[in-house]
Design a protein that fits this description.
It contains 13 helices and 5 strands. By secondary structure, the chain is an alpha+beta fold. The longest helix has 20 residues.
């Protein structure tokens, strides 16, 4: 291989993590993000004389993601609450090298992006998360700078009108997670409820493939009772592993090496505000044979 060509391909390949970060935040699926980015690279290899490869790949990836979102219509067809495919901090597209990227990885932010149209999502992410100028975004989206400004302003207003959660430090989040998950394992409904905000919400994503709550739960006592039962069941029959889910503390349960449940949350001023429970097996495949060592190596049998 020609040395100059090999160097050029290496330079282009360094864009992959950033493209994955963009595609994942657009699509909410690591698998779909990887497919979109790979498709963009395949298309890049079929063209010649690209003056700005980085911009070309960003544009191709963005357009592919917009097309996928418009074709999927998942909000109209998905059974029950939809949650993003959870990713670990080691995934290439996690992109936690800046505060903006770290914050945009959270489940809360990704769920919020679902309220935006594909074009709004693309413009908002490119501007607010990835730091592109309006003129650059206009070229990427084939729009005028004035139009892009309007789109971003509309998306920003929509997003900023939502409830903004308190940002805790990593140490505070870990401490809250330890206390909360201990309470869940204990089955103490009052202890669990005491750590929930009055307006706590639980989203449970089974995708119609496993049993899950068909709609969000909004009553703290009901949420606490559900967690007391389900955590006890998982703890008795599954291996439990503490982990980091989309940049936030969480736990996942596995049986015979296969992940069956993953739980994380968004904190709000020292309490648990929103809970995310992923049960859809399609979204847990990459968690089945990875992650920290189980907390309970051998699940105990229930007492008779």
């Amino acid at each position: 291989m020609n040395a100059d060509l090999e160097t050029s391909e290496t330079d282009v390949e360094r864009m992959r993590p950033r493209l994955l970060a963009l595609a994942y935040r657009m699509l909410g699926s690591a698998a779909d993000a990887e497919d979109a980015v790979q498709d963009a690279y395949l298309r890049y290899q079929q063209v010649s004389d690209v003056a700005a490869p980085d911009a070309w790949l960003v544009k191709a990836t963005t357009r592919l993601c917009i097309d996928r979102l418009r074709q999927a219509k998942r909000r109209e067809t998905y059974f029950g609450p939809w949650l993003p495919e959870p990713v670990a901090e080691t995934w290439a597209g996690a992109g936690d090298d800046s505060l903006e990227l770290a914050e945009s990885l959270s489940m809360a932010f990704l769920v919020l992006l679902e309220t935006l149209s594909p074009s709004e999502r693309a413009a908002y992410l490119l501007r607010e998360v990835f730091g592109y100028e309006f003129e650059e975004i206009a070229a990427l989206l084939d729009k005028t700078p004035v139009n892009v400004r309007q789109i971003v302003a509309r998306a920003r207003k929509h997003v900023d009108n939502k409830d903004r959660r308190f940002r805790s430090t990593a140490e505070q989040a870990e401490d809250l997670a330890a206390r909360f998950f201990d309470a869940c394992r204990s089955g103490d409904v009052h202890a669990i409820e005491s750590l929930l905000t009055p307006d706590a919400v639980l989203y449970s994503d089974g995708g119609g493939k496993v049993h899950a709550a068909p709609r969000p739960l909004t009553d703290p006592r009901q949420i606490a009772k559900l967690l007391a039962v389900t955590f006890r069941k998982f703890y008795l029959h599954c291996d439990e592993s503490a982990t980091i889910v989309n940049g936030r503390p969480g736990v996942f349960y596995s049986a015979s090496g296969k992940a069956v449940s993953l739980v994380t949350f968004a904190e709000n001023r020292g309490s648990v505000g929103t809970l995310y429970v992923v049960l859809n097996p399609d979204k847990l495949e990459r968690w089945s044979f990875s992650g920290p060592e189980p907390i309970n190596d051998t699940a105990s049998e229930p007492q008779s």
